Amino acid sequence: MKKMKFPTPYTILVIVMCLAAALTYLLPAGGYDTLQYDKDKNVFVIQSADTLYQVPATQQALSERSISIELSKFTDQKIKNPISIPNTYKQRKATPQGFVEILFAPIKGIYEAVSLILFVLFIGGFIGVFNSSGALNEGVGYLAHRFKGKEGILIIVLATLMALGGTSFGLAEETLAFYPMLVPIFLAAGYDLLVPLAVIFIGANVGTLASTSNPFAVIIASDAAGVDWTSGLTIRAIALVLCLTISIIYITYYAEKVKKHPEKSLVYGVELPEIYTSNIAKGTTELKLSTKIQLLVFALTFVVMIIGVSQWKWWFQEMTGLFLASAVIIAILQRSGEKKFVEQFLAGARDLLGVAFIIGIARGVSFILNEGQISGTILYYATELVKGMSPMVFLPIVMLILGVLSLFIASSSGMAVLTMPIMGALATAVGIEGDKVVSAYLFGIGIMSLITPTGVTLPSLAMVNVNYNQWLKFCWPLIAIFTVVLTVLLWV
To answer: Do residues 289 and 279 touch, judged by C-beta distance below 8 A?
Structure first.
């Protein structure tokens, strides 16, 4: 009998989609009224199940609805999306999701995620053009020679950089761009595929978990909870240092173990992804001038991307354009003809087509939940569970609940505007400052984002051909440690 294999990411997402659809039959449909600011008319637009009306945009209008958010947060456009209004949950007409809805959900998800999908495909095209010259292979060989015996430094430096990106500007989907560059370096150093995955993915997630100035997580969540985003900065800075240190020690221990005993690798025997097969580096002591120039353009592309996202408010359109422009520049440096450039670009994009489809299919889960109208119901049951709890019990339970909710709502900003107004009001009722709830929110979704199938997890695993079960085996001890450490921090 053939050994049963763990399902592919596509099958995992379809299973999650089917479970979400099943919940639309088991749970009653329902939701909260929402409030959104209309800048042109200077009014709040309130949407309930079957009515839509406007009220003047005043602080009193917010207070009357138990929303403890300053009016300026809306008028300054810091909160643009509709927020949930506490104590307005109502059951609605059931809209269960069946076979047809499940069939269409991935297609809708691909439509919604088209900007991210194009970004990934253009990264693949860029790498395809760059790989054709052998410059990356030579550069990796040179680094392997220079860092021989000091490979552990790579883990410390790169994990720290990823965490700084996550905590400052919300490095997440952008990490997909780093795999083609960094994976060959770690393989040349004698590590397995899990090590670069852990450095990039866990590093960025630790930063997001302990966001200090991340606008997509801590700032939106704080605004939605009605508190200043700097008020919980100390606890999050401590969490960043602790979790990053723990992660580096954990990854380094595993990396050194598999380097000495490759057979102990959790991904021993896993086939190397196609995009890296041409980058099996050999030790190089010196680089040619043409190689140095191409490597400089290659590195500057990522530097400009980071600066663009963090300082110039770039998003996927600008980042995609950057990789296209860099691919053209590298092709010119290689003196590639038009036909050869197109072939190389398309070949590279084809290598990441599977990753692109995973991203789109993952978005389909949100359509099932939203159109089945059970996201609000799940939140309502969760808030009823924590009502009247003591602060020492309330915060860890809220961290757990918000972590579980993030399995269904992958967007950190979407989670914030849906949950924070309600959780902020509950926190006030049990005598807890709003910034503690924001920290519990960040810790909860940060821990769960390490394994959430509907987030960046499965696309990241696909970049290195690692199965979901292999990843769970690797990271569950780290999740357990994070949970204990962050719970203690919340208590303190």
So the answer is: no
